[in-house]
Amino acid sequence: MAADNHTTIVGNLVDDPEVRFTNTGIAVTNLRVAVTQRIQQDGQWRDGETSFFKVNVWRDQAEHLADSLGKGDRVMVTGRLRQRSWETPDGDKRSVTELEAEEVGASLKWATAKVERSSQRGNGERSSGRERQAERGGDFNDAPPF
User: Taking the CB of residue 28, how many other CB atoms lie within 10 A of it?
Assistant: First the structure.
């Protein structure tokens, strides 16, 4: 039986998704997702520590994500954990654990969404996360809880 490291996280986007392209033209969006655990203590629920996860989203899904979600939106991400290591020019060793996303979706626990089939668009037609958030309207004006 093969080992599998399938992982799911639910949290809030720390920043607006921004699509970049590799030298070969493949779309990639790198996200940070804040996940705050809930702790029950003396019969009361409270926020625990917040963890920040790096998430990589590739190809069409990267573009769809940037067209659909913005900073503070609650997301569900499933994928596989990957650890990378490298050495800085100063000789320091670094490593990072990232979640390579298979699926990213909006959480509908406290929000609604209208799903639309995507149409392929040119890169110049993509709006920023703030513009998309303003277009959606009805969003809370409160600062994100992180």
Answer: 16
Q: Is 59 left (phi over 0), alpha (psi -120 to 50) or beta?
A: left
Q: What is the pLDDT along the chain (146 residues), one digit of tens a residue?
A: 556 889 999 999 999 999 999 999 999 999 999 999 989 989 999 999 999 999 999 999 999 999 999 999 999 999 999 999 999 999 999 999 999 999 999 999 988 988 888 776 544 444 444 444 444 444 444 454 44
Closest CA to 50 of 59, 39, 60, 42: 39
The encoded tokens of residue 66 equal 């940037």
- Three-state secondary structure call for residue 137: coil
Tell if the pTM clears 0.85, that is, is over it. no
In angstroms, rounded to a whole number, what is the distance separating the alpha carbons of residues 125 and 122?
Answer: 6
Residue type, 74: R
Residue closest to 104 by CA, chosen among 146, 136, 58, 137: 58
Three-state secondary structure call for residue 68: helix
